[in-house]
Amino acid sequence: MGTQEASSTEECPFCHIANNRTDREILLSDDVLVCFRDVKPGATHHYLVVPRTHINNCKSLQRDDIPLVERMEKMGRSVLEKNKVSVINDVRMGFHVPPFSSVPHLHLHVLAPASAMTIKSQLRYGSQSYWFITVDNVLSQLKTRGKVK
Predict the structure, then answer these.
(1) Theoretical Cys-Cys bridge with 111: which of 16, 32, 68, 92, CB 3.0 to 4.6 Å?
(2) Which CATH fold topology does 6-144 show?
(3) Where are the alpha helices (DSSP H) in 1-149?
């Protein structure tokens, strides 16, 4: 797993949230992950799922991180269910590919309804965005190459 030095994780805002060092509302959590609302939502429902352990980004993932990514996706679906999002096929879940990551800590974007996203959100998170990679694509790359390209 790709991690950063302790000095940089001390400054990471997602590490602060994941370790309960902020007043940010945690919507779901377990011993590995936390989920909270995105501060700049790109859809009516826009959540972030982050690992408690600092991982730089999706390009830092290795084949042995497949269970982590699957767990992140499962938590994303759980928060949507908890918030009564019933049209599960109108959801976008994915990661920004560096250097387009706003925070250098792995975070899964969970957006719904995808069909109602604005043009700006479509550019950032939509299927035509070249810097946003879906969970399915990440898992496929990890399974076939062992690394996200």
Answers:
(1) 92
(2) HIT family, subunit A (3.30.428)
(3) 6-9, 13-18, 66-82, 119-125, 135-144
